[in-house]
C-alpha cells in the first residue's frame, strides 16, 4: 500500500490499477501468461496482437484467464485484418493500444466497447493526431525502445515535450514513457519528466512468463545497451511490409553484421536465406535469429518472474521518490 500511494498517478486512477507500469504488447512475446502476471502484480499487462493471427490471439486471451488485461496491435497490420479488433474486444480488455499507423479507423470502436484507447506516438505530430482521435492515454516512445520505432526522438526529451503540449491545452490525458526503462530509476525518472507511468518491453522480454526461449533470455542478460542496433533486416527476411522510416531495435549478431546496410541484396537472396532464418528461430540460434530488445538490455541482469520485475520497478521508484520528498 505504501508503494501504491507513492506511485498513484492520473494513469493508475484512469485504469484503476495499483502501479503505473504497463508491459508492452510485444509481437510473439507478450502472451496471456505474461499479461496476466503483470496485471496480477498491480500493473497492466498487454497481449501482443502483432501482425494478426486469430488462433494465437484466442489462445493467449484464454491463457490470461480471469486477469484484467489489455491488448495491443500494430495499426497498419490491423487495417489488413480489422475483424481482429472485434475479436479482441469480445474479451472485454481493459485497454487497447494502437501503434504505428492511423488510429482513427479504430478509435470509436475501442472507446464504445468501454476499453481505454492507448496510442503510441514518436513525435508531436503523431501526438496531435492521437489526441484528435480521442486517445485516453499517449505512450511517448523514444528511439531507445526495443522493437519497432520511427523518428529520432529520445525518451528524455520527448516525454516532457508531449506532457507540456497537453498541459498547454488543458488536457488531462496521461502520458506513459517508453524506451530505456527497466528498473525503479527509470520509472522514477519518467514520473519526474511529467509522465504518469511507463510502458516497458525489454525487461519483460526476459520474464519467465514471456513467450521467449531460455537461450534468448540468456543472451539479453549478457548484453549491454551498446549491443543493440536499429535495422530493417529482419523485416526483409520475414517479408513484413513496414512503412518507410520504421526500424527495429535488436541485439547485434552475425546476421545483422552481414546484412545491415545490404537490405537490397538480402531481398534478392530470397528464400534460401529466409529458410536459414526460420531454421535458426526453430533452433533458438541467436547468431541468426532476432532478439528484439532495446537499449535497456544493459540494465537487465537476470531473467525473473514478472511479479519480481514489477516489485523491483515499483519498490525502487517509490524509494527514490520518497527520498526526494523527504519521506
Automatic annotation (TrEMBL):
Instruction: Answer whether the UniProt record assigns the keyword Ubl conjugation to this protein.
Output: no
The alphabetical list of record keywords is: Flavoprotein, FMN, Oxidoreductase
Give the coiled coil ranges.
none
Q: Has the keyword Flavoprotein been applied to this entry? A: yes
Pfam families, per database record? NMO
Any signal peptide, and if so, which residues?
A: none
Q: What InterPro entries does the record point to?
A: Aldolase_TIM, NMO
Reading the lineage from the top rank, the first entry is Bacteria
A single Gene Ontology MF term assigned here is: nitronate monooxygenase activity
The name this protein carries in UniProt is Nitronate monooxygenase
**Source organism per UniProt:** Mycolicibacter terrae
Amino acid at each position: 500500500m505504501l508503494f501504491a500511494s507513492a506511485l498513484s498517478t492520473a494513469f493508475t486512477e484512469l485504469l484503476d490499477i495499483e502501479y503505473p507500469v504497463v508491459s508492452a504488447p510485444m509481437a510473439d512475446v507478450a502472451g496471456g501468461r505474461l499479461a496476466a502476471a503483470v496485471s496480477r502484480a498491480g500493473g497492466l499487462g498487454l497481449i501482443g496482437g502483432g501482425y494478426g493471427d486469430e488462433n494465437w490471439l484466442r489462445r493467449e486471451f484464454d491463457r490470461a484467464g480471469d486477469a484484467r488485461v489489455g491488448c495491443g496491435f500494430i495499426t497498419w497490420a490491423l487495417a489488413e485484418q480489422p475483424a481482429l479488433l472485434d475479436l479482441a474486444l469480445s474479451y472485454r480488455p481493459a485497454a487497447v493500444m494502437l501503434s504505428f499507423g492511423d488510429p482513427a479507423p479504430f478509435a470509436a470502436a475501442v472507446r464504445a466497447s468501454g476499453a481505454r484507447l492507448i496510442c503510441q506516438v514518436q513525435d508531436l505530430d503523431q501526438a496531435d493526431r492521437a489526441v484528435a482521435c480521442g486517445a485516453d492515454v499517449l505512450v511517448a516512445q523514444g528511439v531507445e525502445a526495443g522493437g519497432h520505432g520511427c523518428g529520432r526522438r529520445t525518451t528524455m526529451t520527448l516525454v516532457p515535450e508531449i506532457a507540456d503540449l497537453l498541459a498547454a491545452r488543458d488536457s488531462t490525458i496521461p502520458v506513459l514513457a517508453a524506451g530505456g526503462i527497466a528498473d525503479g530509476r527509470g520509472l522514477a525518472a519518467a514520473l519526474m519528466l511529467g509522465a504518469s507511468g511507463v510502458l516497458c518491453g525489454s525487461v519483460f522480454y526476459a520474464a519467465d512468463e514471456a513467450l521467449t526461449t531460455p537461450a534468448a533470455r540468456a543472451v539479453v542478460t549478457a548484453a549491454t545497451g551498446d549491443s543493440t542496433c536499429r535495422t530493417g533486416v529482419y523485416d526483409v527476411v520475414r517479408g513484413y511490409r513496414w512503412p518507410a522510416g520504421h526500424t527495429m531495435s535488436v541485439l547485434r549478431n552475425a546476421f545483422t553484421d552481414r546484412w545491415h546496410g545490404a537490405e537490397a541484396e538480402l531481398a534478392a537472396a530470397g528464400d534460401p536465406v529466409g529458410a536459414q532464418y526460420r531454421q535458426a528461430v526453430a533452433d533458438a540460434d541467436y547468431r541468426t535469429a532476432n532478439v528484439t530488445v532495446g537499449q535497456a538490455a544493459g540494465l537487465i541482469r537476470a531473467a525473473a518472474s514478472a511479479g519480481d520485475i514489477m516489485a523491483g520497478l515499483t519498490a525502487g521508484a517509490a524509494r527514490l521518490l520518497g527520498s526526494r520528498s523527504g519521506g
